[in-house]
Amino acid sequence: MWLKPEEVLLKNALKLWVTQKSSCYFILQRRRGHGEGGGRLTGRLVGALDAVLDSNARVAPFRILLQVPGSQVYSPIACGELLSGSDVYWAIATGATLEEINQHWDWLEQNLLHTLSVFDNKDDIASFVKGKVKALIAEETSSRLAEQEEEPEKFREALVKFEARFNFPEAEKLVTYYSCCCWKGRVPRQGWLYLSINHLCFYSFFLGKELKLVVPWVDIQKLERTSNVFLTDTIRITTQNKERDFSMFLNLDEVFKIMEQLADVTLRRLLDNEVFDLDPDLQEPSQITKRDLEARAQNEFFRAFFRLPRQERLHAVVDCSLWTPFSRCHTVGRMFASDRYVCFASKEDGCCNVILPLREVVSIEKMEDTSLLPNPIIISIRSKMAFQFIELKDRESLVEGLLVRLKQVHANRPVHYDTSQDEDMSREQIKISLWNDHFVEYGRTVCMFRTEKIRKLVAMGIPESLRGKLWLLFSDAVTDLASHPGYYGNLVEESMGKCCLVTEEIERDLHRSLPEHPAFQNETGIAALRRVLTAYAHRNPKIGYCQSMNILTSVLLLYAKEEEAFWLLVAVCERMLPDYFNHRVIGAQVDQSVFEELIKEHLPELAEHMNDLSALASISLSWFLTLFLSIMPLESAVSVVDCFFYDGIKAIFQLGLAVLEANAQGLCSSKDDGQALMVLSRFLDHVKNEDSPGPPIGSHHAFFADDQEPYPGTDIADLIRDSYEKFGDQSVEQIEHLRCKHRIRVLQGHEDTTKQNVLRVVIPEVSILPEDLEELYDLFKAQSLHVSHREHMMSCYWEQPRPMAPRHDPSRPYAEQYRIDARQFAHLFQLVSPWTCGAHTEILAERTFRLLDDNMDHLIEFKAFVSCLDVMYNGEMNEKIKLLYRLHIPPALTENDRDSQSPLKNPLLSTSRPLVFGKSNGDATDYQKQLKQMIKDLAKEKDKTEKELPKMSQREFIQFCKTLYSMFHEDPEENDLYQAIATVTTLLLQIGEVGQRSSSSGSCSQECGEELQASALFPEQDSVFADASPGRTTQDSQTFPEEAEGDWTVSLEHILASLLTEQSLVNFFEKPLDIKSKLENAKINQYSLKTLEMSRQSQPELKLGNL
C-alpha cells in the first residue's frame, strides 16, 4: 500500500533490511529473515522482535524507499501491507506480500522513473514524488471505509493486513482491531485481534511460529469477562468445543462492549430474524463501523431506560443540569435528544427523570448566558410548565437541531391544545390526596418530574380512578394515542370480518380471559377484547396474536378506554417487553436466563439447594409473560402492573426475587419440582390487597381453594416494598447488559435444539456416522447463514433489488429452517462430494441441485443434501449409477445446461466400428449369452419398481460418459478405467443403435430386440470419441441422421449391465470412501474461498473455483 512519506535513516536500518531491487531513485527492500527457508535464526529473532514490540514498532516484510542522489535520508513510500514503524523513531507503513510491493514498484517504473530525470534539483524530485504518493493516498482514503474511522491511515493498514492474513470474501467488513494476548493454557501469545462483521480473528507470529484463529460470531455460545491464574481480567470466548482467553488490552471495557455488540447484532440478524429489526445504520452489514456499534449500544440503553419506541433514534447526549423546583436547586444529569423526545436523567440513579415528547413542547428558547446560569435554555410545554437546562455544551447546534425536529413533529401531527383539567375525580381517601399533592408539585402530564417520591407512591398502589391515566403517562402510550387520531378505528374496520388462523386463535381464547370478572361475562366486554386483539394482530403481523396477550388486554380494558387499551398493548408488546410475544418467545426466555443469574447473585443459598434453576425458570415464565396477572388475585396483580408501567421489567425481576425469598425455606425443603410449584402457587394465590375498594377476585388457577387449613396471606404492598428495598439496586443498564449476555446462550440453545431434532430425523435414514452428520450440518448451516448478508449487498449493487427467499426461517419445522441455494450448494458440493470432476464439478453440482429441488423454489434442505451425499459415499453400485443416470436426464439436465455448447451435442456419433473386449473368439458366444441374461433379469427388476425412469437420449448419454471420464481423472487406476469406460460406451452406443433399428422396423418382438442388443458386433477400435476411420465413405458416416436422435435411447438397466462387465469400473464404484478427510478439509477451506459476485455484474450465479 502507499503511505505518507517519512524520513528514515538508512544507516541504522541496514541490519534489519535487505535490498531486493534498486534504481537511481527507488529501493525495494525485504525485512531480513522474511522468506528465508530453513527457519534461520536471523528470521526467528527478527520475527520475535516484530511480535513482541508494541504496535508502533511493528513492520511489514517489504518496503520501497525513495532515494534522492547525494542524500543519506530515504523516504519509505510504499509497503506490501499495513502495520507501522520501521524503527523506534519514525512511523512508516508496513506490508506482507511480495505481489503487492511489486505492483507498486511497477507503477513507479512506468509512471515516475522516466519523468524524474527532467528535474535538476534533488529537492524538486523529492517534492514531486511525495506529492504524487500523497495524492494516491488521498484517493484511496476517500472511500467511506477509511474515512469513518478515527485514524483512517492506521485502520487502512490494519484492513490490508486483515485481508492478506485471513483471505475472507470482499464482503467481510473489518470493524476494528486491537493488540492483545491469546492464552493457550498458561502460555500467552502476543498478537492482533481483528473483529469483523461475521468473525473474531486472532493472528500471532512469534519465534517463527504463526498462529491464526478464526471464530464465527454465530458459533459463540458464551462471551464473558473472567480471570485466570496470572491476570485478573480477561475476555473468555466459549464455543461448542473450546474456551479461549484474551487479555492485555489497553481498554478492556471498550473491547468487551464492542464484542458484545457484534455478537448480539450478528446472532440476532442471522438466528433471530423472525422479529429482529436492525437500526437503520446497521441494516447493511458491510458498512458497520465501530462508531455505529457504540451508537447502537447508546440507543438501546436510551430506549430501554425511558421505555421509548424501538424506531426512536438518538441524536445527542449532553451533560447538563435541570432546575428541579421541588428541591429548589439544579440537578446534575444528562439530556438525551431524539427524533421525537427530549429526556433527562439525573446522575444519581432514581433522583429525577423527565420525558418531554416534542408534541407537548410549545417552544425552545435560549436565555442570556450568565455566570450563575451558563448556556441556559428553556423548554415550555402545553400544560404551562417550563424546564430550565443549564451548562449545555455546544448549545447553538443543540437548539438548532431541537427546533428542526420540533417543527417536523408539529408539521406531521398538528397539536390540538386541550387546556381542560380533569378535576372531577373520585376520591380514595389518602391515596387520592397524596397523588393530587404530587401533581401540583411535580406535574400531572407525561412531562412530570419522575423522582423517588413518585416511585414510592406507585409502590403503595395507584388509585382506581387514576390507574388508566397513569398507565398511559408512564408508558408514554398517551403520546402515541394523541399522535395517531383515527388510526385505531381504521384498523378495526380493516381487520374485523376477516377469517384466518390468528382470528381463530383469538376467538378460542376470548372466553378464557378473566372469566370470573363481570366485565367479561357479557358480549360487550368480549366484543371490545376481540376488536383490540384483532386490530393489534392486523397492525403487527410479525407478532399477530400470542397466548397471554388476551389476559393482559382484558386487564387493560378494565382501567382504560378501548382505544387507550390498544395503545397500552402496543407499548407493552413493542417496547416494554421486546421479543416476548412471538413464535419462540425469545425475549421471555432471555429474561428467564437473566432471572437465574439474579437468583444466584441475590439468593445464593436457594440457588445452591436447587441445582437446576431451569425448573424455577419454567415456573416463573408465566410471571413475566402475564405480569403476575394469571397467578395472583386480580386486585393484587394490578398493583404489580402499576410498578411495571413505571419501572419496566425491573419491577418484575425484583418482585420475582422477593417471592422466592419469601418462600426460600419451603423451596429448600421441597423434594421435587412439583412440590416447589405447589409452594409458590399456594403463596401467590394468597397475596391480597387490603386497599382494594372492590370485592376480591381470585386468580383463576387457584390450586388450593378447598384447603382445610387456613393459609396466612401476604399483602401486596408489603411484598412490593420488600422487593424495592432488598432487590431494587438493579439498574436498567445492568439489566440490558445481562440481557445481551444471555441472549447469546438462549439463541445458541435454540440452535442446538434445532440441530438435535434435525439429526434425530436424518440419522435413521442414512449410513453416515452421527459425528460426521453433525459436521455436515454445521457446514450446511454456515453456508445458509453466510448468504443472508451477502445477498443484501448484491441487491444493493443491482439497480433493481432482487427478491430474496428466506434462507433461515425459525417459524418453519426444524428440518426446514435452514436451506441453501444453488451457489451455496455448489460450494458445499466441491468441499464434501467424493465425485470431483475437475472443471466439470461445477456443472455436476448444478445438475444435482436441480434434481434435489423437487418443489422448484430454488432452495434445498439439509435432509435432501445429506441423502444425496449418503448415496455417493455409502450407496451400492446400482444406487450410485442410478443417481448418476438421473443427473443426466431431465429435470437435472436441461436444454440450457451449462455444458450445452459441448461439441458432443452436435450430429450424433456412429458406432458401426467394431468393439474390442479383449477376449478370444471362442469366448464371444458365452459373453453374448451372459449379457442377454443380464438384460432379461434387469428388465424383470424394472417391472417391480413403482415408477420407471425415462430412457436416456444419445445427447444425454454423451454427457453421462463425459462425467464418468471426468470422475476418473487422477485416479490411481486411471488408464484401466479409461479403457473400460471406452469399451462400455461403445457397447452402449451399439445397443442404442440396435434398439433404434428394431424400433423403426416395428417387426421385432421384445425378445428379438434383446437378442439384437446382446449380439452386437465386436469391433477393432476402442475410442468412442475418435473421428471416423479414413476408409469410411460419406454415406457410411451419415448412417445416423440427426433427425433420428430422438429415437436413439438406452435405459438405466442397459447402462448398469454394461458397467458390471468391467471389473475396474465395479471396483471404482464399490471402493470405500472416507468422508472424514473431506470434512476436515472443508472446515479449513470454507473461510478461505473468495467470492466473485461483485465482479460478475452480468451473471448473478456464483462461480466457485476448484478446491
Commentary on this structure:
The chain is α+β, with helices and mostly antiparallel strands. Helix content is 48%, strand content 13%. It contains 40 helices and 26 strands. The strands form 6 sheets. The chain has an 8-stranded antiparallel beta sheet. A hairpin with a 5-residue loop joins strand 4 and strand 5. Helix 17 crosses helix 18 and helix 33 packs across helix 36.
In summary, what is this structure?
Helix content is 48%, strand content 13%. With 1107 residues, the chain is an alpha+beta fold.
Keyword list:
1107 residues, alpha+beta, eight-stranded antiparallel beta sheet, 40 helices, globular, disordered C terminus, coiled coil, GTPase activation
**Fraction of residues in H or I helices:** 40-55%
Radius of gyration from CA coordinates: 38 Å
Ends apart, CA distance between termini: 29 Å
Report the β-strand fraction as a percent range: 5-15%
Average residue pLDDT = 78
The general outline is: globular
Helix count, DSSP H or I runs of 4 or more residues = 40
Let me know the number of strands: 26
Quaternary status: single chain
Low-confidence region ranges: 52-58, 80-94, 142-148, 415-427, 700-707, 788-805, 901-925, 1003-1046, 1089-1107
What is the makeup of the main sheet? Answer: 8 strands, antiparallel
Structural class: alpha+beta
Strand order of the largest sheet: 17-18-19-13-14-15-16-20
